Amino acid sequence: MSSTMLENILSNRNRTANLKVVFVDVTSYSKRRSITQAEVIDAFMVALDSAITGISQQYVRYAQDNGSDFQKDVICLPSGDGAAIVFPFDGTHDIHLQFCKLLLQNIYEHNGQNRCAKFENNGWCNCHDNYNISVGVSEGKGILYKDVNNNYNVAGNVINLAARLMSIAEKNQILLSEEAYSQLVDMVDDPYLDDKFTHYHDVYIKHGLKITVYQYTPRDCCFLNCEAPTKVGMQKAHRTSTLARDRFSDNESLLQLATEN
Questions:
Q1: Is the separation of the CB atoms in 20 and 139 below 8 Å?
Q2: How far apart are the C-alpha atoms of 172 and 158, rounded to whole Å?
Q3: Looking at the structure, do residues 150 and 254 belong to the same domain, yes or no?
Q4: The CATH number of the domain where 112 resides is what?
Q5: pTM strictly above 0.90
Q6: Are both 122 and 144 inside the same structural domain?
Q7: Domains: count for the chain
Q8: 160 and 247 share one domain
Q9: How far apart are the C-alpha atoms of 147 and 113, rounded to whole Å?
Q10: What is the pLDDT of residues 18-65, one digit of tens each?
């Protein structure tokens, strides 16, 4: 499906655009039997398509004013048990967050239609197609290209970072990069939006990189998990333990030096 907007980026903007990336992963997917995995992916695709349709309806005025077609211009990249959804639009400051909320609400309503005690206790089951997702969101410059199947695809740190954030998030959590968070609170007309985020500093991701992570925690969404990600808590506990051990070692060395003197 050809997109006038994306073809313009390829031809006239050196393949470069400011992108908002939402990377989504189905949690506990590999624990399920193959036939249930397929059923879960089918349900996920329905929720994903519904969320894209829903966000296009929220931005219908923007689309009309800018000649955009969300069904063609939004890039969806499947990743086996998840997907990356890329928004190449300028001036849509909170489209990625609103999309995440729509998607999570769709999944919450889907799971509520077939309640399952095993799924609710364990986060997975083989008797229903209920599922949860983890979400990572980033924003920044990316490179648009055509892949081997002649589909639109994206490369660059912006998509890699969204994937790293997704890997930290737990079920039904939304984690944002610093750039995505900064642009959101700076440009959206909500002076209290910052109060709906929890900040985690010095979080290590792949290759030993250290970043600040922003978790969307509004506390008034029944479909959101606002607990701290376990991996972030484990890193903090490790740093605290290491610091305490180093201080003890330093004190012990000072005591030994004083005794020798």
A1: yes
A2: 21
A3: no
A4: 3.30.70.1230
A5: no
A6: yes
A7: 2
A8: no
A9: 38
A10: 999 999 999 999 999 999 999 999 999 999 999 999 999 999 999 999
